[in-house]
Amino acid sequence: MAMYGAAIAALSLFLTWADWRHLSREWTTEFYSVVIALVFAALGIWLGNRLTPTARAKEFVRNDRAIASLGISPRECEVLEKLAEGRANKLIARDLDISPNTVKTHLAKLFEKLEANNRTEAIAKARELGLLP
């Protein structure tokens, strides 16, 4: 926090100095405008980089306890992963080499186990429980 205060104080000092130089008419108004714009652009970029949270890349570890407690089978996990990828039932069936009716059955069981009413809720709850990245 002290660093931000020091940066703002330094910027204020610079602007006061630039204003004095402007009043003494040593440089043109356009020069002052460009310098002030560049200073504020640099400050904005610097603050943006400092204040924007960076995503920490960490390896996803599936919550096996939640899978066991919910009674989700390995095949249902595969269906859930494909569901999270946004695939339709027919594509899930084709990818897993099962029938579309089997996919519907797996989805119905997943909705029941996750207490979800639709695909979006199931994916959200699965992510909350650590079943999906």
List keywords for this structure.
133 residues; mainly alpha; rod-shaped
Task: Give an overview in words.
- By secondary structure, this protein is mainly alpha-helical.
- The chain is built from 7 helices and no strands.
- α1 runs antiparallel to α2, α4 crosses α6 and α5 packs across α6.
- The longest helix is centred in the N-terminal third of the chain and has 23 residues.
- The chain is rod-shaped and about 80 Å long.
Brief summary of the model shown:
With 133 residues, the protein is mostly helical. It contains seven helices and no strands. The two termini are 34 Å apart.
Biggest sheet character = none
Class by SSE composition = mainly alpha
Q: How many separate helices?
A: 7
- End-to-end Cα distance: 34 Å
Question: What gyration radius follows from the Cα positions, in whole Å?
Answer: 29 Å
How is the topology of this model organized?
Layout: H1 2-23, H2 29-51, H3 64-70, H4 74-84, H5 89-96, H6 100-114, H7 119-128
Helix pairs in contact: 1-2, 4-6, 5-6, 6-7
